[in-house]
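Slide 14.
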Amino acid sequence: MKGLKEYIESNKNRFLDELFELIRIPSISSTTEHKQDMYKCAEKWKEILLKAGADKAEVFETEGNPVTYGEKIIDASLPTVLVYGHMDVMPVDPLELWKTNPFEPVIKDGKIWARGADDDKGQCFMHAKAFEFMVKTGQLPCNVKFMIEGEEEIGSAHLPDFCKKHKDMLKADVILVSDTGMIAPDVPSITTGLRGLAYWQIEVTGPCRDLHSGLFGGAVANPINTLAKMLSQIVDDKGHITIPGFYDDVLVVSEAERSKMAEAPFNQEAYKKAICVDELFGEEGYTTNERTGIRPTFDICGIWGGYTGEGSKTVLPSKAFAKVSCRLVPNQKHEKIAQLFKDYFESIAPASVKVEVTPLHGGAAYVCPIDLPAYQAAEKAYKDVYGKNPVPFRSGGSIPVVAAFEEILGIKSILMGFGLESDAIHSPNENYPLEQFFNGIRTIPLFYKYFAEKQ
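Slide 15: predicted structure.
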């Protein structure tokens, strides 16, 4: 678009300064101690949208964390794009593994290092600056709405109700999301599928109090030992999940589509090296990309109990806990899977302990057809910036509300991500390459241009 390159060049330092102000707010949604930071971040987003050219912006209350909404309606007869993003970030633990302060962004080796640099403050901020460019230069070709929520990292529990309540306000022709990634910096890709999610907490109780492991060990069941043994039964040595009925509704991907997926470049040795493992493991009969894109999984996300402090304490604990999750594929209903796992896990508990499984949150999988005009507009925009057609790609990650958007609002989402696997989202030392950040700002206005032309 006219003047885009020059606008970015003359404003890039300001862009980064403004982004860093946003990143410095420790908007961790999973802990109550950061509740006020969520409101501070919501107000900051309101300020960002108004300065970028929104006609109005407002912070809305929900039963949980706030949502910031903004809009610019230039002509009601023109198409409308609804931009979705999230202001909340993951916890930073373990803090000792960070090489920099997670909430004091620094630029090093051509990357922004901070929590939220990619997920999702950096990627969401690209949309604000792309919008600013189009407004300031008089090149905005359609109406734009923004919905920035504060609970994505904890399952977006209250956003569906927000969408139902404000359905008229959120009317749009397409939803634009940048909370995903690309295959590689020189291999642009558009995420066409997301896995669903089911998540539980498990509590195993043995004796009524912690016991001396010498006096009682061998005579009383140890809840940690029991929990570990039970969890080991969920996935067999072929990577197959043993929960009865788990695979009943799994959408089987055709050989034709699997062949198309196989065209995406993938270096298995580089993949292993990047995450420091000697061998990979997964469901037998599927490639690495298929295992993370089109097949469901089960993972233990955390396990604890007993004494974990410095030194030793010979204790047989009263309780043991775990947090576990499943990534789900199209046709699998997270509510059904949640009940199947709960029933099965509690059924395999020995009489020596009591087991309670509590579902925490979940979401449906999502698939975007590649023949949508909005997808084709995104495809053309990527090609203009990266010089090659993007590869359609199914992500292993989950954004539960994307499927809810389609169900509640009746709108398809286009997942235009610019993150990379090396960005270490959810991990210590999260980062985001400056090149990807600025390429996002270059690409997004082109999407608007081509999308408006197709309407």
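Speaker note: The chain has 13 helices and 18 strands.
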